[in-house]
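seq as requested:
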Amino acid sequence: MKKEYYEVLGVSRTATKDEIKKAYRKLALQFHPDKNPDNKDAEEHFKEVNEAYEVLSNDDKRRRYDQFGHAGVGSSAASGGAGAGSAGVDLNDIFNMFTGGGRRGGSPFGGFEDAFGGGSARRGRQSPGIHGTDLKIRLKLALEEIAKGVEKTLKIKKQVTCTVCNGTGSKNGATEACATCHGTGEVRQVSKTMFGQFVNIAVCPTCGGEGRVIKERCTSCYGEGIKLGEVTVKVTVPSGVEDGNYITLRGQGNAGPRGGAAGDLIVVLEEIPHELFSRNGNDVIYTLAVSFADLVLGTKVEVPTLDGAVKLTIPPSTQPETMLRIPGQGISHLKGSGKGDQYVKVNVYVPKEVSHHDKELLKDIKKSAGLSPNAHNDKEAKTFFEKARGIFS
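struct tokens:
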């Protein structure tokens, strides 16, 4: 199964463009073919990184990928390699982030300060609250629902904002400056190396980057600002989705502690096996058993489809395992207009019990020259089949 692009770059679904770019240039440097000659694994990793970056660095592609997964971007993603669209990169460009050339030349890679984290001091402290976690659920769909698309109303249990303290986590709303970071939301650690002095800046572990701490905790949520609850959400499933596709509902996941932004709700789609039909892409297949006489003489039968029953003509001398096509009775395409087809696989019906009279007729039919694989059907044989047509009908 193809890896998720966020997993390839090692970033969260809420990662900013800067975070995505930073993760990309780090991995591109690590797996670039020029640094890993004759290493096929590194080359494959490099292609994956390029493909993931091309999609996630593009707002439109990222939106479609977040909603529909790999099916949403199709073949538009990079195919990998050093020349793959906008994600292509020369190894010299990667090294610019260690020389500062990225800032002067407009390269997508940062300069010396960014490479060692020095630039983070100018980005400011993060927004208040800790981001809520993503929530993943599975949604089972019937083939009829997949064929046309459907809107589902789901009840889910998740972390919701505490209504007693309005998500603040504080009993009376009072807070005070964090004693660890002194209200900055950041802690700094200075280290000296042969290259000089470096400052490592990290989120304060005490206040989670908020800069303030609660004086008196809410007794309902114990200071977290969130509680377990149940909510109702609606999800619109387009036609043509496949088993394993997923839909991302932004901000519908677990609420963040103390006013933090909510995570995402990831709805993984699961196709329920159908009792009548099997699926091949956007086409559906139905197996039909008819009598031997009907295969030889031809007939008209009623067959089920995803839209209701239709009449199907079985031509004379139809062979077992023949696939008959009913246009436009398949599944609507996920991207673009049009529908797939339904194929009817025709098989011969063999009864488990046969009467004495029918056995005698079968013996006479067996003697007919028309049943010999080396003989041609003559008029006499056809006349006999007309008389025997009703045996298995």
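The first strand starts at residue 135 and ends at 141.
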